[in-house]
Specification:
Layout (H helix, E strand, L loop, with lengths): L12 E10 L9 E9 L12 E4 L3 H8 L1 H23 L14 E3 L3 E5 L2 H12 L20 H14 L10 E5 L7 E7 L2 E7 L7 H21 L6 E7 L9 H20 L4 E5 L2 H9 L3
Parallel strand pairs: 8-9, 9-10
Antiparallel strand pairs: 1-2, 1-4, 1-5, 2-3, 6-7, 7-8
Helix pairs in contact: 1-2, 4-7, 5-6
């Protein structure tokens, strides 16, 4: 009997997942579950916040033991690059069985099913079944990114932060800021400096990515609205910077052009309701110019 599945509870939400096995030392024969790729089954409620993506499942302490303290930083970068490579494939509609690995030493494990009353519980079930080295699939990511952020936005922000802070390293502290509010948990934003608060979102680069981009933008706009409500007396100014780079578009270009136009129209409409200015960045240079105006 499978204790993790209960067909008599239709209200429970289900995910498909595959462990990603990693052999740190080629030829050693020791493989560990380093990541877990996740795809939702059926329609999820908005509150579920479940999108296809990959999670790093290995604890940082375990990684240091396996790779050694000196090599742990390099191994972490490899896992993060693998996570983003797999997540991007999933965002563009690649099925679990079709995932390609970016490095030798990684292999796709057997597909399984987990379920829970919400996305968090389903992930916890997947984590417990995937590996004894994992107890929380969101622990690694929670330190440096949004759980529902797209790969496109994450890459854009990393490049932007690096180049924007090249001549003044102190500028890095303006990114990924947590703002304290009076009657609730702190709010994480992509950028905050003086009166400026900005979030970054991306237009979809494929039709499959449209839902993920929409969910990401909605979440970030809600945070900006909360910021405006909390700091109205301080005349805070909010912006949504939209990564509109078109270099990595996938699929039918005519169809995608319509999808991106609809996404942008929806972003501008919802942003206007919270008095948030929407600015397009076609490139990293455009993004830097926008952020320079907030410095």
């Amino acid at each position: 009997m499978d204790l993790f599945l209960n067909d008599e509870a239709p209200e429970r939400l289900r995910i498909r997942y595959s462990p990603i096995l990693w052999e740190p030392q080629s030829g050693a024969g020791e493989r560990f579950v380093a990541l877990v790729a996740v795809v939702p089954i059926g329609e999820w409620p908005k509150a579920g916040r479940c999108v296809p993506r990959a999670y790093i499942s290995m604890r940082r302490t375990a990684l240091s033991v396996l790779a050694g303290t000196a090599k742990a930083s390099h191994a972490a970068c490899m896992l993060e690059e693998t996570r983003d490579f797999l997540s991007e494939q999933l965002e563009h509609g690649v099925d679990l069985s079709g995932l390609q690995m970016p490095f030798d030493g990684f292999a796709l494990g057997e597909e399984r099913i987990a379920q829970g009353v919400d996305f968090s519980q389903a992930l916890n079930v997947a984590a417990a079944r995937a590996s004894i080295l994992c107890d929380d699939l969101t622990a690694w990511d929670s330190e440096d990114q949004d759980a529902i952020g797209s790969v496109s936005t994450r890459r854009f922000l990393v490049q932007l932060r690096s180049q924007f802070s090249r001549t003044d390293p102190s500028r890095k502290e303006r990114f990924r800021r947590k703002l304290d509010v009076k009657n609730g948990p702190s709010i994480l934003v992509d950028y905050a400096f003086e009166r400026w608060v900005a979030q970054v979102a991306s237009l979809p680069t494929s039709a499959h990515q449209a839902a993920i981009s929409k969910q990401e933008a909605e979440s970030k706009l809600l945070r900006l609205q909360a910021i405006r409500d909390e700091f109205a007396e301080n005349r805070v100014q909010t912006r949504l910077v939209v990564n509109a780079n078109s270099n990595r578009l996938k699929g039918d270009q005519i169809e995608l052009k319509g999808v991106r136009a609809e996404s942008l129209e929806a972003l501008r409409y919802f942003a206007s309701r919270s008095d948030t200015e929407v600015l397009l960045a076609q490139s990293i240079d455009d993004g830097i110019e926008i952020f320079e105006s907030m410095s």
